[in-house]
Specification:
2 domains; 0% strand
């Protein structure tokens, strides 16, 4: 009879330093490598855009469509409270940023020049705007931000209704007092004379 316990079967006696420190941390290592590749591609894109334009700030602005949005969308994808839909959008936008980095990195090999270079740089500006718009939508559709916005809107609606109710109350009270005064005048004076005086006060012509 084998006296070996189940826990002994689960215990890995063949573990090593490589297994414990490298293999077990594979997700982190791969993530670091992937982000390093993105940053390297961004440096390459900077070099290409600088060669095409001769402007360092235009070349630097290319990062707003490459590495920077990639890392931000990567963080947005990992955010625990985001919705499934925006998690997919974050992954999609990160893919666009990575593709932009790669495409700019090979632009000089494809011999982009003249009008094609302008189209390429215009595309970078458009993609930067796309990342900006999607970033705003991501923020305003975040569950916690949406809850605060809905709460503020509900409070605003309640305050508006409360103010309208107060104004209506004051108007109804004033109208009741006016009717009471009109009845008193009609008891004391001729109703036709009362109507004539009220017409004059309202700026209307005196009835014939």
């Amino acid at each position: 009879m084998n006296d070996k316990r189940i826990v002994d079967l689960l215990d890995d006696n063949n573990s090593s330093w490589f297994q414990d420190n490298i293999v077990s941390n594979a997700p982190v290592i791969i993530a670091v490598f992937a982000n390093f590749v993105v940053i390297f591609a961004d440096v390459r894109a900077y070099d290409v855009v600088y060669k095409l334009t001769g402007s360092w700030w235009k070349a630097l602005s290319a990062s707003l469509a490459c590495a920077i949005p990639f890392i931000l969308w990567e963080i947005g994808w990992q955010y625990n409270h985001t919705t499934d839909a925006w998690r997919r959008w974050s992954l999609f936008m990160a893919g666009i940023a990575f593709f932009t980095s790669i495409f700019l990195g090979v632009a000089d090999f494809l011999d982009f020049s003249g009008e094609w270079a302008d189209i390429l740089l215009g595309g970078v500006v458009v993609l930067t705007g796309l990342h900006t718009v999607m970033g705003f939508l991501y923020y305003y559709n975040d569950p916690s931000v949406a809850r605060k916005r809905h709460k503020a809107q509900a409070i605003g609606t309640m305050l508006d209704r409360q103010m309208n109710a107060r104004v209506a109350k004051e108007l109804l009270k004033s109208g009741r007092d006016l009717l009471a005064v009109m009845k008193e005048l009609e008891k004391e004076y001729n109703p036709e004379d009362v109507d004539a005086v009220m017409a004059i006060l309202r700026g209307k012509k005196r009835p014939n």
